[in-house]
C-alpha cells in the first residue's frame, strides 16, 4: 500500500516539476533580465586574469558613483554568463572563480551606493534619489538574471548531486544581490528623512513624492511589465499541463492528485493577478517567485528520485517523496506570509492616510 502511495505521488511530482521552471524561464525574456549572450573570456582561459585587470582599470577611471555602480552590475552580469558557460562544460572548479568575482563586484556596487551623498538641498537630495532608483531598477533586473541562471541549471544535464551543489552556489549569489537591495532600501530611507527635515513635509507626502519619482524613472513600469509577462507565461504553462494531464494514461487517483496540485498553483497565480490589479507589482513577483522556487526544488527531487529508483533504493525514494511534499507546504506558507505582509502594509497605509486627513 505504501509503495502504491509513493508511486502516485511520484507521478504527480514528475508532471508538476516541469511547470514552474518552464514558466519562469520563458517569462524572463527582455534584454534587461534574460541571461543570453557570449560569456567572452571565461575562467578557463589564460587571458582571464588580464581581462579582469582591464575591468579594474576601467573602473578606476570612472569617477561618478552611479556610473561606477552601473559598470559593476554590467561586470556582474558577465560573471553570470561565465558561470553558465563553465557549468555547461562541467568545469566546476573554474566556475568558482566567477562566483567569487561576481560577489566582489556586487560588494563594490553596495559600497558605491552607500557613498552616494544625500546633500542638504531639496533639489540635490532628489537628484540622488533618482540615481538610487535607477540603480534599484538595474539591481532588480540582475536578480531576475540570477533566477534565469537557476532555471538554466535546472534544465541542464547535471546529476542531482551536481545540480544541488551548483544551486547552492547560485543561491549565495542571490543572497549577495539581496544585500544590495537592502542597502538601497536603507539609502532611500535616509533620503526620505533628509527630505522631511529640509522641506518639513509629512512622511506621507514624502513617500508620495518618492513613489512619483519611481514612476518617472521607469521602476514601476519595469516591475509591471515583468509581472504581467510572467503571469502570462505561467498561464500558458498551466494550459499545457492540463493538456498533458488529459493525454496521459493516468488512473483516477493519479489524475485527482495532479488536478489538486494544479488547482493550488492556480489559486496562488490568481493572488498574483490580484496584486497586479492593485498595482502591487513587487508583491506579485514575490508570489510568482515562490511558485517557481517550488517547481525548481521539485524538479531536483524528481531527478534524485529517478536516480534512487534506478539503484533500487526504496527507502530513499520514500524519503524524497516526503521531502517534495514538505517543500510544497513550505512554498505555500511563504506565499501566505507574503500575502499577510502585504495586507499589514495596506492597513498601515490606510491608517496613515486617515491620520493625515484628521490632522
Tell me about the largest β-sheet.
Answer: none
The tally of domains stands at 1
Provide the helix percentage.
over 70%
Radius of gyration: 23 Å
Provide the low-confidence segments as ranges.
1-11, 18-32
What value does the average pLDDT take? 79
Q: What is the tally of beta strands? A: 0
Q: Tell me the β content.
A: under 5%
Principal-axes shape call: flat
Measure the end-to-end span: 67 Å
Please explain how this structure is put together.
This protein has 359 residues and is mostly helical. It has one domain (2-358). Helix content is 84%, strand content 0%. It has helices at 2-16, 18-27, 48-60, 65-88, 92-115, 122-154, 160-199, 203-216, 219-247, 252-277, 281-310, 314-358.
